[in-house]
Amino acid sequence: MHIVTAKEMYEIDRITMEEYGLDGRILMENAGRAIAKQLEGLLSLNQRITILVGSGNNGGDGFVIGRTMMNAGYSVRILQLVEDNRIRGDAQYHKQLFLSFGGTLLHWNESFDLKELEEETDVWVDAMLGIGAKGALRSPFSEVCTFVNRSERLTVSVDIPSGIPADEESGYTEEAIHADITYIIEAPKLSTFLERYASYYGRWEVVRIGIPNSAWSFIKRAIWSDQSVQQTLPTRSRFSHKGSHGRGFVIGGSQSMPGSVALTSSAALRAGAGLLTIGTVPEAIPSIAAQLTEATFHAMKGQNGWIQAQELDLSPYDSVVIGMGMGRAEETASITRQVVKSAHCPLLIDADGLYHIQHHKSSLRERSHPTVLTPHPGEMAMLSNQTISSVLDHPISISKTFAMEYGVYLVLKGPFTIITTPDGEQWVNLTGNAGLAKGGSGDALAGVLLTMMMQHETIQHALSNGCYLHGKSADYMVEHQHSDRDLLATDVIHGLIQIFRTLSS
């Protein structure tokens, strides 16, 4: 499923109409009918529907929804919030059809009584403003949106909740529609996955309206779906051996922070690593070994419980992860920078390792093997010299710019984790829940990703599947055994058992 900007969606519509010859009135008919079908499955015949329409295609969709629902036996009224001369083109065509079918059309004026309308409404359908709307809401949309938000009626938005932008733009959102459900037409827009705007959509579903598959060819942004996982997750041969599934090296930990590297290593083993070696200070080994009898250890030179500079032979390993629980002292940081230069295999840098390279990012471009960075928004802000709020508001564009500039794979962690390749292709992961907002979750993810990197044909598939599995395990555990309050990283690691069983069944 693709993810688009407003500009990209307009171009896809143009391609569909001009190059494929599919009339805009048919696309509007398809959109309205598809949403009406969803509404029919949601509502009972005794629920009264009021559709709020503005100008443009969004309003036109509203007229089709009204006609279709009315024809199906529902009580429907449409409140038009703009002057008649602003309803033009395809929307005007469908407005006339609605009227020809005997539809009830109300017109907004300054004395219009929304309270009276509410008393005769069970469901609001928001078809006021589409993906082209920008900036603060103006009258009468501001008043209507505020009223609908205060209403206790079910609210359904068409394509996008009125008042929020489609893209990574700052917008005045206080009065924007807070939908219970949004039926998105063809492809989610960027704002669906932004922390600032995601809650406005409520529960959302995508409806198809007949856009040809080839029209999407220039879009390099998509959701990583269940189907994507099924198609790309490797299967195991009955004749495979431990070497077939990767030799991984985990570098990290300290005397005071052995838990992080233990979580990474446990997750890597549970995710299916064939062989795993943990490189950490001698003081941390006993506590980790007590938890992980399957791992081997490389005792690294340390001082006061922290890893110190030293030579490392990384040639035996298929993939390396570094950074968890290492601390940020300069001598420890030198190990990370050394590994960046000497690891002739895929390398994942996480946690403290990201701080170690923040002033040495140019060395990432010099690597001949894939490099993966896994920051959370705070770490991304540090790496990109941005504020955290800027990263939260522009995660997709900032990720793309950084990944392409430094030639890295970037996993920007969050409620919607974004995986970006060095050539700017992007995937959004939808699995996971608030239970992952806890120390140790990122360490566990790093271990899952390490294993996936050793077992997939492409790094992108590895990272996308690793994020999916990690989040899916959290979802399973919250649904069946835990809440999003008490979930621990160790629970997520254990939950991988059921996820792999489900995927292989």
TrEMBL record:
<dbReference type="InterPro" id="IPR036652">
    <property type="entry name" value="YjeF_N_dom_sf"/>
</dbReference>
<dbReference type="GO" id="GO:0005524">
    <property type="term" value="F:ATP binding"/>
</dbReference>
<feature type="binding site">
    <location>
        <position position="162"/>
    </location>
    <ligand>
        <name>K(+)</name>
    </ligand>
</feature>
<feature type="binding site">
    <location>
        <position position="443"/>
    </location>
    <ligand>
        <name>(6S)-NADPHX</name>
    </ligand>
</feature>
<feature type="binding site">
    <location>
        <position position="126"/>
    </location>
    <ligand>
        <name>K(+)</name>
    </ligand>
</feature>
<feature type="binding site">
    <location>
        <position position="58"/>
    </location>
    <ligand>
        <name>K(+)</name>
    </ligand>
</feature>
<dbReference type="InterPro" id="IPR004443">
    <property type="entry name" value="YjeF_N_dom"/>
</dbReference>
<feature type="binding site">
    <location>
        <position position="159"/>
    </location>
    <ligand>
        <name>(6S)-NADPHX</name>
    </ligand>
</feature>
<dbReference type="GO" id="GO:0046872">
    <property type="term" value="F:metal ion binding"/>
</dbReference>
<feature type="binding site">
    <location>
        <begin position="413"/>
        <end position="417"/>
    </location>
    <ligand>
        <name>AMP</name>
    </ligand>
</feature>
<dbReference type="InterPro" id="IPR030677">
    <property type="entry name" value="Nnr"/>
</dbReference>
<dbReference type="InterPro" id="IPR029056">
    <property type="entry name" value="Ribokinase-like"/>
</dbReference>
<comment type="subunit">
    <text>Homotetramer.</text>
</comment>
<feature type="binding site">
    <location>
        <position position="325"/>
    </location>
    <ligand>
        <name>(6S)-NADPHX</name>
    </ligand>
</feature>
<dbReference type="GO" id="GO:0046496">
    <property type="term" value="P:nicotinamide nucleotide metabolic process"/>
</dbReference>
<dbReference type="Pfam" id="PF01256">
    <property type="entry name" value="Carb_kinase"/>
</dbReference>
<keyword id="KW-0520">NAD</keyword>
<keyword id="KW-0067">ATP-binding</keyword>
<feature type="binding site">
    <location>
        <begin position="130"/>
        <end position="136"/>
    </location>
    <ligand>
        <name>(6S)-NADPHX</name>
    </ligand>
</feature>
<keyword id="KW-0413">Isomerase</keyword>
<keyword id="KW-0521">NADP</keyword>
<feature type="binding site">
    <location>
        <position position="376"/>
    </location>
    <ligand>
        <name>(6S)-NADPHX</name>
    </ligand>
</feature>
<feature type="domain" description="YjeF C-terminal">
    <location>
        <begin position="225"/>
        <end position="503"/>
    </location>
</feature>
<protein>
    <recommendedName>
        <fullName>Bifunctional NAD(P)H-hydrate repair enzyme</fullName>
        <ecNumber>4.2.1.136</ecNumber>
        <ecNumber>5.1.99.6</ecNumber>
    </recommendedName>
</protein>
<keyword id="KW-0630">Potassium</keyword>
<keyword id="KW-0511">Multifunctional enzyme</keyword>
<feature type="domain" description="YjeF N-terminal">
    <location>
        <begin position="9"/>
        <end position="217"/>
    </location>
</feature>
<feature type="binding site">
    <location>
        <position position="442"/>
    </location>
    <ligand>
        <name>AMP</name>
    </ligand>
</feature>
<comment type="function">
    <text>Catalyzes the dehydration of the S-form of NAD(P)HX at the expense of ADP, which is converted to AMP. Together with NAD(P)HX epimerase, which catalyzes the epimerization of the S- and R-forms, the enzyme allows the repair of both epimers of NAD(P)HX, a damaged form of NAD(P)H that is a result of enzymatic or heat-dependent hydration.</text>
</comment>
<comment type="similarity">
    <text>In the C-terminal section; belongs to the NnrD/CARKD family.</text>
</comment>
<keyword id="KW-0479">Metal-binding</keyword>
<dbReference type="GO" id="GO:0052856">
    <property type="term" value="F:NAD(P)HX epimerase activity"/>
</dbReference>
<dbReference type="Pfam" id="PF03853">
    <property type="entry name" value="YjeF_N"/>
</dbReference>
<dbReference type="GO" id="GO:0110051">
    <property type="term" value="P:metabolite repair"/>
</dbReference>
<comment type="similarity">
    <text>Belongs to the NnrD/CARKD family.</text>
</comment>
<feature type="binding site">
    <location>
        <begin position="57"/>
        <end position="61"/>
    </location>
    <ligand>
        <name>(6S)-NADPHX</name>
    </ligand>
</feature>
<comment type="function">
    <text>Catalyzes the epimerization of the S- and R-forms of NAD(P)HX, a damaged form of NAD(P)H that is a result of enzymatic or heat-dependent hydration. This is a prerequisite for the S-specific NAD(P)H-hydrate dehydratase to allow the repair of both epimers of NAD(P)HX.</text>
</comment>
<keyword id="KW-0547">Nucleotide-binding</keyword>
<dbReference type="InterPro" id="IPR000631">
    <property type="entry name" value="CARKD"/>
</dbReference>
<keyword id="KW-0456">Lyase</keyword>
<dbReference type="GO" id="GO:0052855">
    <property type="term" value="F:ADP-dependent NAD(P)H-hydrate dehydratase activity"/>
</dbReference>
